[in-house]
Amino acid sequence: MSLKNSDFISLMDFSSEELEDILALAEDIKSGKKNISDRLVGKYLGLLFSVASTRTRISFQVGVNQMGGHAEHLNANDLQLVNHESLSDTAAVMGRYLDGLIIRMYDMTQYGKGREALRLIAEHAGVPVINALDDKDHPCQVMGDILTMKEKLGDDYKKKRLVFTWGYSWRQKSPGVPHSMLIASSLLGMNVVFAYPKGFDLDEEYVAFAKNAVQKSGGTLEFSNDLQEASEGADVIYVKSWKAQYLSGEEDTRIRQQVRNDWCVSGRHFEVANPGALFMNCLPIIRGEQATADVIDGEHSVLYDEAENRLHIQKAIMAAVL
Prior knowledge:
Layout: H1 16-31, E1 44-49, H2 55-66, E2 70-75, H3 87-97, E3 100-104, H4 113-125, E4 129-131, H5 139-153, E5 161-165, H6 176-188, E6 191-195, H7 204-217, E7 220-224, H8 227-230, E8 236-239, H9 249-259, H10 267-272, E9 278-280, H11 293-296, H12 303-321
Parallel strand pairs: 1-2, 1-3, 3-4, 5-6, 5-8, 6-7, 8-9
């Protein structure tokens, strides 16, 4: 399987077969069946981050090193971008030095600008660009999430009921994770319900793509404005906050404060879920906001397994596109 010299920006750019191949490669890498320790020998990758990161940055740096390459963290504030050098000039120069770019770039006050920046960089750099979270997608996170579900639930994970829910947070976060999960689950034929308060609908472009894809894949896709009802019969409850796409920042803040108590995952949601249901979140998470401490630290939680799988899936992605 090879997607050599491809960008990995949005999962809408890939087929279900290509996503399945990446998942299979990640499983082989994690188990030791596939040795890719020399795949990036002599390769230099730049990690251009303009937004804070813990798991994404560390897992990519470790992964590149384990594959024999070198990863250099590039803080946007340390580059001439702060002196208004254009993104196109910056990208063109970086492409002369580097073999690939891993980019996290977005501004929650300007939805879509981050995606425009990634596409512009990819156009001018001439080397593969991997999306490490922008304002529309977080493909690496979601591929790691699905790898985790496959490990925990078995090969028939697609038939299990995944409840992907909005959760309260004081921060207005990127909708990248729900968007990427919407696309991946619909392409792969998963059984998913997206739950969120009224007003926090996802991008209409992503919803339309998913509705079309799920008809072909044989999965199911539902939407709900009632978390308790959606949690009935769940095999996975995945909580993630995101900024309302079609509301002002002020309206978003007002509504999220009003609904915060109804949109915090707690034991009552697992009481109606299936026995052994998983609790997932991409981290970071504040106990008492998106979920209660007893859920986050309890028997249902697979948060740290989920975080570890970022390393394995990103190594598979790099092996495929570089």
